[in-house]
Design brief:
Layout: E1 2-4, H1 33-41, H2 48-61, H3 64-74, E2 79-84, H4 87-96, E3 107-112, E4 120-124, E5 130-133, E6 140-144, E7 147-151, E8 155-158, E9 164-167, E10 170-173, H5 186-189, E11 190-194, H6 196-217, H7 234-249, E12 262-266, H8 273-283, E13 287-292, H9 293-299, H10 304-317, E14 321-326, H11 340-359, E15 363-369, H12 377-382, E16 387-390, H13 397-408, H14 419-428, H15 433-450, H16 453-459, H17 464-468, H18 474-486
Parallel strand pairs: 1-8, 2-3, 12-15, 12-16, 13-14, 14-15
Antiparallel strand pairs: 2-4, 3-11, 4-5, 5-8, 6-7, 6-9, 9-10
The chain binds adenosine-5'-diphosphate.
């Protein structure tokens, strides 16, 4: 909002004056509602409806200046006083000029006036000053002792008692109080739309986001993982974008939808489940909490429920949050016989998830497991983990090549490296992303060995230029691939899940 420095400390005398066409029917005397009622009470036949109509008719006779002044008396910071010919006109004008309202509006105090050709909006700012805003496509004018200044669409001016705001032919004289006490009659000539409760959650959410961005902007160290660091998992990424990224980024699009907050990513170890969740958290600018089911089971014994509650509370305070639970089967494994402890943990988690849904919190839980069918039925049946996403090892040469390129992007490859041939080999071996990462590292180490870099390190003659001149050759890769296949592809040791596999 642009505040223009029109200052007017001159205060005209407070006697009521008729100004301009809009109020021209008025004789100069405000008819207090009490006396209006007593006039009407002479008629003993009057019905309640006609009494109200009478009150309205008389209310209309109270000059707009006074009706507005009565509203200024009750307007607080966050309120906007709007006058127009109809509520629809006011709505249209405010909508078209919404960009100039830079504070959250909590209450609309609306005063209808048949005579006004346009809309005028007044708000109380944080310093309790009254501002007028022009929401019309045409200029309004502010008249004070120093003359007349145009108020263009979207501009706002401070106004003081005695100033006149001109909306087409209607002159509104700003007063700090109406000529007569209208406090008991405001409800007749005004309507109040109180949005305090509606906007509160939005304000809290926005504030939290701003507070968190303070920390995020405060010196980001190192490169953060993004979707660019994940290869061959486009479908998984797309599913997670639709399920988490878009609802967090564009909440207004999901106002009338039920948003799913629980996801299960399942598939072999080393396929990038953790990597994807981490990248997703960064892309979403979300707070990322990573847990390991196995560790939790041993560390949280006896206090699991309390820990879950604390964890979700922390996630709530720092929303948007993504809670990633690796080895989920360790906390939510199928139970045989009576397992009261496990039951409690699963139930607590489901209750917390249900609260998240009810409150519409921006908390998403991604649970990763190597085997979906090992999860307790309560988890899958509840619907709280509504989306199951399969993450597999890449099954195309293109997928392998993407991962290969990601892991070699900061390395020099010799011209004899045939990437396509290598990718086909890796595909036949059913390598995962973790395997490819391992093979590239091993090839790099082979190149260190071959060029004598390790030797130089031993002797102390190593310099950075040795690395700059380094190229990984086809031979380095072949050796790494052979070692890998001789080891039966054991680059990634799944921790723990096998003990439940028996
Ligand atoms: P998971 O959680 O499925 O067991 P991780 O995400 O922990 O697998 O993968 C381990 C490492 O393997 C990652 O940090 C990354 O270096 C590499 N990796 C795995 N999958 C991919 C992939 N699709 N794209 C790029 N790198 C990958």
């Amino acid at each position: 909002m642009k505040i223009l420095p029109v200052q007017n400390y001159y205060c005209k005398n407070n006697t009521y004056q008729v100004r301009g066409g809009g109020n021209s029917e008025h004789t100069g005397n405000v008819v207090p509602f009490a006396s209006a009622k007593s006039i009407k009470n002479d008629n003993s036949q009057v019905s309640f409806t006609s009494l109200q109509t009478t009150a309205l008719t008389l209310a209309k006779k109270i000059p707009l200046d006074d009706r507005l002044a009565a509203m200024f008396q009750v307007a607080r910071h966050g309120d906007i006083v709007v006058t127009a010919k109809s509520l629809k006109d006011a709505q249209k004008a405010l909508k078209e000029s919404s960009a100039c309202f830079q504070n959250i509006i909590k209450r609309f105090l609306y005063v209808e006036d048949e005579g006004i050709q346009g809309t005028a909006a007044f708000l109380r700012n944080a310093h309790d000053e009254l501002e007028v805003i022009n929401p019309n496509k045409f200029d309004m004018f502010l008249i004070d002792q120093s003359g007349q200044a145009p108020i263009k669409q979207g501009e706002s001016f401070y106004v003081l008692p005695g100033d006149t705001v001109k909306v087409n032919d209607t002159d509104i004289v700003i007063k700090d109080k109406p000529k007569a006490d209208l406090s008991l009659h405001r409800h007749i000539f005004s309507r109040v739309f109180d949005l305090t409760n509606d906007v509160k959650p939005a304000i809290q959410k926005q504030n939290l986001k701003s507070i968190l961005s303070l920390v995020k902007q405060d010196g980001v160290k190192g490169k953060k993982l993004t979707f660019e660091d994940v290869g061959g998992q486009d479908k998984v990424i797309n599913d997670l974008k639709k399920g988490i990224l878009y609802p967090v980024k564009y909440p207004e699009a999901y106002e009338n939808s039920i948003v799913n907050h629980g996801f299960i990513m399942y598939g072999p170890p080393g396929t990038g489940k953790t990597l994807i969740a981490q990248a997703l958290a960064n892309e979403t600018s979300a707070n990322f909490v990573k847990l390991n089911g196995l560790e939790m089971e041993s560390k949280w014994v006896g206090e699991s429920e309390e820990n879950w509650r604390n964890l979700f509370e922390l996630a709530r305070e720092n929303q948007p949050s993504i809670i990633f639970i690796d080895e989920f089967d360790a906390v939510a494994k199928k139970r045989s016989g009576k397992d009261v402890y496990g039951d409690k943990v699963v139930n607590q988690l489901l209750t917390l998830m249900s609260d998240v849904e009810k409150n519409g919190d921006d908390i998403y839980v991604i649970a990763a497991t190597n085997k979906l069918n090992m999860l307790d039925d309560a988890i899958t049946r509840s619907g709280r983990f509504g989306q199951h996403i399969e993450v597999n090892a890449p099954d195309t040469v293109e997928g392998i090549l993407k991962i290969f390129d990601i892991h070699t992007r900061n390395k020099s490859l010799a011209s004899d490296v045939d990437k396509n041939k290598l990718a086909k080999e890796l595909l036949d071996m059913k390598t995962t992303g973790a395997d490819i990462s391992h093979i590239v590292n091993a090839a790099n180490e082979n190149a260190f060995e071959r060029t004598g870099i390790y030797k130089k390190m031993e002797e102390g003659s190593f310099t950075k230029s040795d690395i700059e001149a380094l190229e990984i050759t086809s031979e380095d890769f072949s050796k790494a691939v052979n070692e890998f296949s001789n080891n039966n592809g054991k680059t990634y040791k799944p921790i723990g899940f096998r003990q439940y596999d028996k």
